[in-house]
Design goal:
By secondary structure, the chain is an alpha/beta fold. It has nine helices and eight strands. It has one domain: 3-Layer(aba) Sandwich (Rossmann fold), CATH 3.40.50.1000.
Length: 222
């Protein structure tokens, strides 16, 4: 195994779209949740995220309400259907090539997403990641409570959770570490790694890349 650590963001980096947002839409379209209420809230939080001022606790409570009082077993079939019908077509084949290149070089690979771990885990398995950092979800008595466990993996939270993961996995610093991301929300981690790479970046991240002379790659999204 290489001593290089390669970290990938998920939404709008490997995927052409946002898995959290798409999950809520999937739940609406399959009549699992109230159409009007969830559509309005989903659009609202999506806008907040792209403006870089998302109240993540409020968002997480909304997103995780779709799992509340359910067991992992009860959600398994829905998640499989979501993965096959919604996520599979969202996977950017050009991002897959990047994954395969790093895998071929035996680089140590980590998927780091602000999305909750219930959604991220099956996507990570599909993409071949053995290691993930995501927003952890509380389970009590075998059921999801609809609450986060600990800190979210958004912004500074992603950096903190990646640092904890690195400590446990023998990476003492960010030397030889690459991070691919599309979002200004990932700036705290991008500032720490030795090789930050922006993938189809949002406007704010693009401006930050120009200022810091960071690499930008444009992946076709069709």
């Amino acid at each position: 195994m290489s001593d290089k650590l390669i970290i990938f963001d998920l939404d709008n980096t490997i995927l052409n779209g946002d898995s959290d947002y798409s999950w809520i839409k999937f739940m609406i379209d399959s009549d699992q949740v109230d159409h009007d209420e969830f559509s309005k809230k989903n659009e609202y939080f999506y806008e907040q995220y792209y403006q870089g001022n998302l109240d993540y606790e409020a968002w997480a409570e909304f997103a995780l309400s779709t799992f509340k009082d359910k067991t992992p077993e009860q959600m398994e079939q829905l998640l499989r259907s979501f993965l096959n019908t919604v996520i599979e077509p969202m996977i950017n084949i050009y991002a897959l090539r990047l994954l395969h290149e790093h895998s071929h070089d035996n680089d140590f690979m980590l998927l780091a997403s602000a999305t909750n771990a219930i959604i991220v885990q099956p996507i990570a398995e599909r993409l071949g990641f053995k290691h993930i950092v995501a927003t952890d979800v509380e389970i009590i008595d075998g059921k999801y409570t609809g609450k986060m466990e600990g800190e979210s993996a958004l912004g500074k939270g992603k950096l903190n959770k990646v640092k904890k993961w690195m400590d446990k996995n023998g990476f003492i610093n960010f030397e030889n570490t690459t991070f691919y991301s599309d979002s200004i929300n990932d700036l705290p981690l991008l500032l720490e790694v030795s090789n930050p790479i922006a993938v189809n970046p949002d406007e704010e991240l693009r401006a930050a890349c120009w200022e810091a002379d960071w690499e930008i790659i444009e992946l076709p999204i069709h």
